[in-house]
């Protein structure tokens, strides 16, 4: 599985961004897709995940109600819509694929990773 993330950028606090992660090499609907983020000097943290069918989503408490993860099985792409962005959302965002059918929030369960995309939120 190859993953290509895009959509990062610089935005003011309160603004929105949509990240995309295009997947290739395997049927998109057969695995869980997740988003993680890593701020400078900090560990990589779970943000959101979606099941292959799209029927189940899970969010970190810090983004619940502001971020929405969705998938397009035809385009083999998963999205992360980020609204009401805060300076503390500033990080490099990574998409990842988990070949199991259960949503996990731990990095170790994710088998494939895309390159990161930088999100910077100014105050």
Topology (SSEs and partners):
Elements: E1 2-6, E2 9-12, E3 17-24, E4 32-38, E5 44-50, E6 57-59, E7 67-72, E8 77-82, E9 91-98, E10 112-113, E11 117-122
Parallel strand pairs: 2-11
Antiparallel strand pairs: 1-3, 3-8, 4-5, 4-9, 5-6, 7-8, 9-10, 9-11
Please tell me about this protein's structure:
This protein has 123 residues and is mainly β. It has strands spanning 2-6, 9-12, 17-24, 32-38, 44-50, 57-59, 67-72, 77-82, 91-98, 112-113, 117-122. The strands form two sheets. Strands 2, 4, 5, 6, 9, 10 and 11 form a seven-stranded mixed β-sheet that branches. Strand 4 (32-38) and strand 5 (44-50) form a beta hairpin. The relative contact order is 0.32. The model has no long low-confidence stretch (mean pLDDT 94).
Q: Give the SSE string.
A: EEEEEEEEEEE
Measured distance between first and last alpha carbons: 37 Å
Number of strands: 11
How would you sum up the global shape? Answer: globular
Characterize the biggest β-sheet: 7 strands, mixed
Q: What Rg, in angstroms, do the CA atoms define?
A: 13 Å
In a nutshell, what does this entry contain?
With 123 residues, this protein is mostly beta strands. Helix content is 0%, strand content 50%.
Keywords:
mainly beta, 123 residues, seven-stranded mixed sheet, four-stranded antiparallel sheet, single chain
